Amino acid sequence: QQQVKQSPQSLIVQKGGIPIINCAYENTAFDYFPWYQQFPGKGPALLIAIRPDVSEKKEGRFTISFNKSAKQFSLHIMDSQPGDSATYFCAASKTGANNLFFGTGTRLTVIP
Amino acid sequence: DARVTQTPRHKVTEMGQEVTMRCQPILGHNTVFWYRQTMMQGLELLAYFRNRAPLDDSGMPKDRFSAEMPDATLATLKIQPSEPRDSAVYFCASGLQGGKGTQYFGPGTRLTVL
Questions:
Q1: Pairing state of beta strands B104-105 and B109-113?
Q2: Residue A67, by phi and psi: left (phi above 0), alpha (psi -120 to 50) or beta?
């Protein structure tokens, strides 16, 4: 059973657009929600993360929106650039557990 | 610049052969994870260790896969015998229990079983 559901599977946007990637989870014990970015031929790398005590976190052009009651969180990329083209994974875990439950990934393509 | 290292980066082998992949976690990290990534299944957790002890290997086919941590600086994933369906990229990641929960991934081993 997929603990974290991610959509869409792929996304194509024009440069400057705002791609949005959505994730949903079931386990209310989860309290850590990171996003990982993976470029071809590389391992995933932590991009940004949020805990449920806030509804939004912004780091540069990347923003996580978190809706605790709906058990959903999303990644927004402002002013997207071709260099943002990568696969993005959402994940969830609970404090102390360390193992992350990953979504299935979204392949983002930003067209110049 | 601390990073997780994995060897080999690429491996091509024939069905039935033994494959051993190695990982050096970031110094001081006490949790190590093995993942397999394929187009069809995405990122699958195979096994993970805390303080060198295996905590969960339920994602791993037990009959052919084995994971060990001979010491704190080395984790191994072995497949014997290998099969074409094992072709994938295998990632090792390390982290610190009690930390923020961040996992740091290595560059992966791309395995092709012919």
A1: unpaired
A2: beta
Nearest to B56 among A32, A41, A99 (CB): A99
pLDDT at res. A56:
95
Query: Which among B45, B41, B53, B51 has a CA at the least distance from the CA of B93?
Result: B45
Taking the C-alpha atoms of residue B81 and residue A2, their distance in angstroms, rounded to an integer, is: 29
- Interface list for B 24-53 with A (CB within 8 A): 31, 33, 42-43, 45, 48, 50
Measure in Å the smallest separation between the Cα of A105 and chain B Cα atoms: 7
The 8-class DSSP code of residue A32 comes to B
How many Å apart are CA B25 and CA B33, to the nearest integer? Answer: 9
Q: Is B17 helix (H, G, I), strand (E, B) or coil?
A: coil
Query: Which residues in chain B have Cβ-Cβ distances shorter than 8 Å to A93?
Result: 101
Interface check for A45 against chain B (CB to CB < 8 A): the answer is yes
Round to whole Å and give the CA distance between B63 and B93.
Answer: 23
Q: What is the pLDDT of residues A3-59, one digit of tens each?
A: 899 999 999 999 999 999 999 999 999 999 999 999 999 999 999 999 988 999 999
Chain B residues with beta carbon closer than 8 angstroms to that of A104 = 42
Tokens for A25? Answer: 């989870």
